[in-house]
Each structure stands twice: as structure tokens, then as C-alpha cells.
Give the backbone structure.
Amino acid sequence: MKHGNNYMDTFEEYRLYIESLYRSKTVLQRDNFISQTGWKEFIPLVDDDAARFLQLILQLKRPLKILEIGTSLGFSTTSMALAAQQYGGSIITIEFDADVAEQAQKNFRQTGVDDTIQLLRSDALQIVPNFPDAYFDMIFQDVDKRLYPVLLDDCVRILKSGGVLVGDDALFPVMALDEKWKDQIAPMREFNELVAASPQLDSMLLPVGDGMMVAVKR
Ligand SMILES: C[S@@+](CC[C@H](N)C(=O)[O-])C[C@H]1O[C@@H](n2cnc3c(N)ncnc32)[C@H](O)[C@@H]1O
């Protein structure tokens, strides 16, 4: 296939075209979600296309028990909950920052998805190792990237066979990132390599949002 522009320009054109297709139909948009909270600090949340992709996975797979690691203001949680509440799925989400967690809980109430979500205000490093084996149908990993490789074995252990593991920001190793995110690159690369090579997982890294590693447990 020939490209008139360099690849990154072409990729940006793809992204804008895809975004334009869905913008009017997207019920929950990230920028609106953030402005409704009135939160002024920069909080990294998944992109709109990543949120739609998560919803699509839920519609396809209908996972009943979902774990999200890294809630922040609850944009991805709310996006998933809007899909999960249509078929009776539920989400446990973990956030250790008390102020952020309080705002997320308010957002869940305002959006009418609080019945679908249980928010654990705690350190994922303490919580995740204590879930039982084969407990979740889906795990969305979106915490500090330095924890991704640390928690991977537990994520695979607590996932059911046939369950889906999604890791956000999987393209960090090849993105032009601000200096403050540089310490997130090596662990993200390690996570990608571990998932790709895992005999327990079949996976694909997709260029959705900042990259989504999608894996199914054998
Ligand atoms: C990238 S944000 C999550 C964004 C969210 N999933 C979304 O798209 O709406 C990562 C969050 O993980 C939280 N976090 C970082 N380390 C954590 C830990 N050890 N335990 C629990 N939460 C943690 C941060 O406070 C931050 O709010």
C-alpha cells in the first residue's frame, strides 16, 4: 500500500476519520465527562475510541464479572458500566487516591451507573493478589504502568479461561511522550513482551487510543 504522507500523518488521518464517524453517536464523551466534574488537574483517561472499543468488547463477550485496575475519575468505568448494565454485568474498580475516588463515586451516581460498580479505595498491589483464582471474565488494566508487569501473573491467575485481559497505553514504547511519563515506558514494554510471549494468552496489540493490548486466556 502506498502512502502519500509519512506514516504518522496518515495514521492521524485514520484516527480523525474514525472519530468523525462516531462523534455524534457517542453518548459519553471524554471532554464532556471531564468538564462536568469541574476537575481542573490533568487526569489521564482513556480516549473516546478506546472507551467505545471497551464497550464493544463487553457487547461481544458479555463478561459478568469485570475488574478495572485504575479508576481515576471513572470515565472508562462509566463507559463499560453503560454496556454492562444492559446484560447484568458488574464492575469492581480499584483507585488508591482518595480525592479522585470520591469524585469518581459522584460521577457514577450522576450517570446512574453506581449500582453496576463497586469502587475499592485501596492499593491495587494489596487487593489484586487476594482475589480468588479464575474469578473474573474480563480485566481492564489501566493503572500506573510500573505495576503492569508486577500484577500480570495475578491478572492471569484471577481471569477465567476464555476471559479477556485488556491493557491500555500499550503503544507507550513507540510514542513521543512527555518527559514526566518516561518511567512508564520500560514497564509497558515489559508487559507487552510478557503478554505476547505468554503460553497462557492469545493476544493482539491494537492501535486504538494509546494502544490496547487485548488478550484471551486459554
Ligand atoms: C490512567 S488512570 C485511570 C484512567 C481510567 N481508567 C479512565 O480511563 O477513566 C490511572 C489511575 O490509577 C491510579 N493508581 C495508580 N497507582 C495505583 C495503585 N497502586 N492502586 C490503585 N490505584 C492506583 C491513579 O491514581 C490513577 O487515577
Summary: The mean pLDDT is 93. The two ends are 34 Å apart (CA to CA). Residues 96 and 123 are 5 Å apart (CA to CA).
